[in-house]
## 1
Amino acid sequence: MDTRQKDKKYLGRDGSFRDVEVTKAKGSYVYDAHGKKYIDFYMGWCVGNVGWGVDEIVRQIKNFNGPDYVSPMYFYKPWAELAELLAKITPGKLVKSFRATGGTEAVEIALQAAMAYTKRSKFISIEGSYHGHSIGAMSIGASDFRGWYKNLLPDCHKIKPPLDRVAAREVEKILSKRDVAAFIAEPTICNLAVVIPTKEFFNIVQKACKKYGTLFIADEVATGFGRTGKMFACEHYGIEPDIMCLAKGLTGGFGALGATIMTNEVAKSMEFGFSFYSTFGWHPLNVHGAIANIKYLLKNKKEFLKNANDLSFYFKERLEKMPFRYPAEIRAQGLAIGVEFTKNGYSDAIIKKAMGKGLLIADAKPNTFIIYPAINISRSVAKQGLDILEGCL
Ligand SMILES: Cc1ncc(COP(=O)(O)O)c(C=O)c1O
């Protein structure tokens, strides 16, 4: 049996897959089993922010000499080191990290901490959003999930974009009942093909959260670590969240873990016995990869963020001039770039054609495609990819 046959027989999957058998990845390129080279404008959906196979990081991972495993109950120096790093680079008063295996678990911890802190159980989030695939995370995600699973968490209110003053007033009105544990959102909504709320939206929501005792959770699982041209997307809006969820770019793919970082005050509410436990949360090998990745990103931060911002203009300019067959809305913040059509099926055709021609892009919701390249992608590779894209219209 070849890989596809074995996969079909033994691997559980959802209904969507792309027919690429990845064998190697380096920088902004991915290679398949036939040696075909793809330009990666997708980077595993905001995972490989600094590029794949970075020599400096890979070398350090190969030199790992720590324990195979450490029980969450013990002390382990690199845990403290990674937590300290996260406290130093995240905005506002975020200090204490809880150890998660990935983004979904980071969101779960955030919801639980908000419930423990406020003694409330209701949530507000953005309609159509995505925060992971657990029961809790799906409850605050798109309402469509309720069609699949009837018994998701009750009392989860969804706010529909556009996220402007009107939407913020709607949030405020709900919060005024003083029974909502947390408002949760991606600051820039990658999962809606880069919806960029107004600053006013977050100003009003943040103030209302403070006034009515609701916690503000920023889900930066996708937007964190330079994706939007700042280290964290919160910085675009002056958001100082009570809790922030991190994963993906936190390890850059050089490991698998997530983190829920919160203020001391909120963390205190989790100090009861067995409030949270994750056997493989912050496995030593993954922590080693995460620290190497973050240190590499911090060392090159100025250059990488400048590149993300410079190339953001380039991508936007090129996309705005492209002869799309149907009207397109182009949205960009750093290297989080989304294109949305009103015409059904057009984006799917582009994505498929691009893959055939050696360019990897993806959809975020129907009639969109997203471009989430490495934040240190060179202008020449960006140009090559955009040229391929233009040839697919
Ligand atoms: C904003 C956001 N939150 C949470 C998650 C869930 O992360 P994971 O797939 O690591 O569980 C994702 C995954 O795409 C995400 O984009």
## 2
Amino acid sequence: MRNAKSTSKLPNVGTTIFTEMSAMAQAHGALNMSQGFPDFQPPKPLQAAVVAAMAKGRNQYAPMAGDIRLREWIAADAERRSGACFHPDTEVTIGAGASSLIFATIQALIHPGDEVMVLTPCYDLYEPAVELAGGRLVCVPLQADTHRLDLEAMKASWTESIRMVVINVPNNPTGSTWSREDLHGLAELVEGTNALVLSDEVYGPMHHDGRDVLSVTHEPRLRERAVVFASFGKILHCTGWKIGYATAPAALTGEIRKVHQYDVFSTGAPFQAGIEAFLNSDAGATHLSELAPFYQSKRDRLIEGLKGSRWQVSPAEGGYFQLLGYGAFDERDDRTATADWCSRAEGLALIPLSPFYPEGENDSKLVRICFAKNNDTIDQGIQRLLKISNG
Ligand SMILES: Cc1ncc(COP(=O)(O)O)c(C=O)c1O
């Protein structure tokens, strides 16, 4: 075995920027507002429901497609929100976080030579998944000012080989959302083509300032060609449990499950049972209805604290990330700048934006901060941000 050699299938892929920045934060004792997870706990009744499920013996494999009662809740929730009907048996699949199902979907549906349109900046999972499937990315920038879909640019970059368009709303890292006109425009763009829509909606209900919570399934013309992803980790403050789901028409779901059953097979039985019990309780309904205002107040606290400073802030429309522009006080590229800010005596870990551009470096002078944090953490973050911008 000493001479055994392997050739990397992903030669350009290293450790993700999230792991890199969290490790750097730990090494320097910096405040970590980089990676996207809360520093508070899931609701107590949810924790209790998971513990109860364990005590009741829900500790062996869950069904491959997921706990049926949780799938029924997911189908009912989708119908309540957008009128879309998914059959829990054949059109809803629960996986190890949304990530595992996004990965399975791309492996199942993308063939060598297929092209996949992604909108940049974009979440870093899509590129390696497409590469492993033998596909090729077609990168189209989001609009420079609003970070919303640029339908004209998407049309201009369209090719016959595009088999999938990846959308992520609310968007990580930019916090942008979309409008009904965007949904209509997307439907028109893909009409008559062979392209599927992969809609990554893991920050789903977190739309701020009273915006409509719009899913790709609100547009009936897109339902037949869309795979939609959601994450209980994100909406229930339990990212470490890694429970997410995908909804898609039966034919697409069948193909996705062919990969899922040999990759993840099934995931966290007591977590699924506990989540189902919580979501079907009054406490669960209240949690979901309060989620958007809960995160909006954290976003507002951060923005208020930076008022009058040299950080440039355009309020996130959704999700739990805020972009911060530093061009007014620092000329360095984003990787150099964030590494320096993290290593200072009163350090702060943020995420540079350039890793979200698969086509190469960019010079937007923007960084991403996660405000899914206790108010004390946000206040400490504000103090450190002000020290950074004051030089
Ligand atoms: C846009 C986006 N998609 C997918 C995921 C992964 O979700 P999960 O933790 O459920 O796998 C994340 C997590 O940060 C994300 O930001």
